[in-house]
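Allow me, if you will, to draw on your knowledge of protein folds for a short while. I have a record of one protein: its chain in single-letter code and its fold written as discrete structure tokens. The full record is reproduced below for your convenience:
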Amino acid sequence: MRRRRQPAVRQECGRGLPRAARGRAGRTARGGRSGLRLLGLLLAAAGCDRGGDECPPGLTRCLSSCRDLTRDPAHCGACERACRVGQTCTLGVCRCPEDRLDCGGACVDPRTDEAHCGACGVACTGGRLCVEGVCSDDCGALTSCGGDCADLQTDELHCGACGNACRAGEECRSGVCTAVCVAPYTLCGDACVDLQTDTSHCGACDLACNVGDYCWDGLCRSRWGSCPYVFLWDGQTWRFHTDLSGSPLGAGLPFFKPAFYGANIYELGDFAPHDGLYRMRLRELVFESSYVDETTLLVVDVPAGHDVYNEWTLASQLEREPGRRFLSVRDPRPPRFAVDDAGRDVLAAVSRIDGVPLPVARDGLSRVVLDFGPLRHPERARLVLATWGCYADLRDAQRPPYSAATTVETPDGRGGWFERAVTGKSASGPRTWIFDLAGTLPPGTSKLRLTLAHQPSVLDVLDAVLLDDSPPAEVRLTEVPARRVELRRGGAAHARAATLERRLWADDARLPEIPDALLAGRYTRYGDVRPLLETADDRFVLMAHGDELSLEFEAPPERPGTVRRAFLRADVWYTLKYHPFGKLTDSIDPLPFHGMTTYPYPPEEWPYRRDLGYARYLQEWNTRVVPAPLDPVR
């Protein structure tokens, strides 16, 4: 049986908050702790009293690890209460197997044991043998093996043949030595594995995960992923909506452009208040940590009969600031026809927002030629796009020229295409956003070619495209600061990365954290963190994997004769532990700052080296220590 690695532990100054989780059997612990570099620039290492220990439900801390006292033979019913050799732990009690007797502390086979033949203390004398629990002068139907009567089908000392003894952890079944697996382990081939965490046997024997994926809760999952997940309260349940694809740090990857990062605006669909409050949760579910600097609800009213969307650009790679405009629409219409690069009719795939996207291959492009009919008012044309991004290692599939942009082209009159407008990429979560074409289309335009972003690590996917050229309506914006913001432990959940066929998805489950998803560092203490999110000032709420930010906003008074939509303005940075190209970092250090041009940056460029106010922020708020987790087996 393979050994388990020790669990990773999370500690908070002033209040112990260790978090432990079981790793797959047979892993060897490797790894260490990352230095806390930024804090060391400002203040001496602060001492922390370790509080009380906490283990996941069903486990108990015994010395330095969490144990299941109901079935752990080394800690059966209580810590350090070990079962004797041959015994198993069942419901916290050491017991012999069903076909064995406990005789004087030893598990014996009463069918063959000459000292306990048929019952404890009944000895066979005079050279007689114990045959099927009876002292006998011959072996009967059994086989004589050097003075022993053995059933070659079940005898662990003579399995299949005299003298063929099974090894420790094996039993004799049908004359073959077979590994014995104790729950939660299952026999796959000749090894005992945990189907909940084993990447070679995930959910079932021989069901292997893809290279780079991990197995958790019996499902293969991607180690790389990004952005806090947004859950909205609909009056009855918490419903996943999208993720906050804000400002990725991507330690060491040069194509990220942090100089152009800032707050983004996220559409929230039909999000509505209940009992006068908008309620949402931001959950950190994947292999990353987040730095949240501002959260403000934007309530937008437009005249009845209209709707409103925001410009979503995420165009930092184009060296542009995030777009923050809102534009109204009135009855946006689908195209009259749509064909892909191969000339196939794809009108049904792009005419409505339904999660069924334009088909695209790993080595292809999300590109479609559209005809909306002659535009009566091209000077106010705007597209409503529903998209998402699929992140994967596409270096073997995508070929240059790459594009970090969504482009709109019109026919150039010579059989080619002329570029008319460029904006950013969708990023991971499902997005519905508006692309303003005002002033870019020539009179008489009816045909457009739309191409989404495509790069070696991401391929954007098109769900739907609609066009509106109605007169713009008045857009009235109300900024609503959060009335309550609480950082707390939320645990892991079931999350499914976006693919070329389906959108990003997650549920609101409360599962044990994944040890390998943690990054080392000092995180924001749990509790009320509203003062940190009122303005974007680099005083971040630092969220680790498993953390949850709970927010409430008061609904402003309704405006008669209007339709209302809610949006979230959030200044959110995040550092990835894994990228499709490989592992990036084990630490949340150094902390980012607005205006930096690279990450990580030279220490002398950090603007808070001598800022005592920032030092007080670090010392007062970031008191929760997360050590580096043990490296998993790759």
Q: What stands out?
A: Residues 223-304+476-626 form one domain. The longest helix spans residues 612-621. The mean pLDDT is 85.
